[in-house]
Write a structure and sequence with these properties.
With about 160 residues, the chain is mainly α. About 95% of the residues lie in helices and about 0% in strands. Keywords: Coiled coil, Membrane, Transmembrane, Transmembrane helix.
């Protein structure tokens, strides 16, 4: 008979332990359920924030599209300007080369003109000298003739 109270005590103890475990599990489940609800609420907030950021990125992409087009146009314009600058540089080099050739020709022409002027001056001086010599010869001849001519006659004067 001592066995029945011990068994009853044991069975009540086991039942109390089981009830305690069940209550503890229930509280734990309730805590996990609350935590899950909080987490899902946070998740929804974060998803909403992600969607808003995604929309902002799309808006910024839409705003960047015209700027990218403008950038492309400016790059094309830069390339065209560089090509034009290269052509102008080549043209300038060509013009400078032509200018140098023209200046050389000018210098050569100026030297040739100076040489011709010098030769002309020399020839003119020689011609003047010869003219002076011829004049002198004519005067000398006239003087010689006059010395032989009779001054009394009309023809000699």
């Amino acid at each position: 008979m001592k066995l029945v109270p011990v068994l009853a005590f044991l069975s009540v103890s086991v039942m109390v332990v089981m009830i305690f475990q069940a209550v503890r599990q229930e509280l734990r489940l309730q805590s996990l359920k609350n935590h899950m609800l909080e987490t899902s609420a946070e998740l929804k907030k974060k998803e909403q924030a992600i969607i808003e950021e995604k929309n902002k990125i799309q808006d910024l992409s839409k705003q960047l599209a015209p700027l990218n087009n403008k950038k492309d146009e400016l790059n094309q314009r830069k390339v065209e300007i560089n090509k034009s600058l290269e052509k102008l540089t080549n043209s300038l080099l060509s013009c400078n080369t032509d200018k140098e050739v023209a200046e050389k020709k000018k210098v050569e022409t100026t030297q040739a003109i100076s040489k011709v002027k010098g030769e002309y001056e020399e020839a003119r001086k020689k011609a003047e000298e010869e003219i002076q010599q011829l004049k002198q010869q004519i005067l000398d001849r006239d003087n010689n003739i006059c010395t032989f001519v009779d001054e009394t006659k009309e023809e000699g004067r």
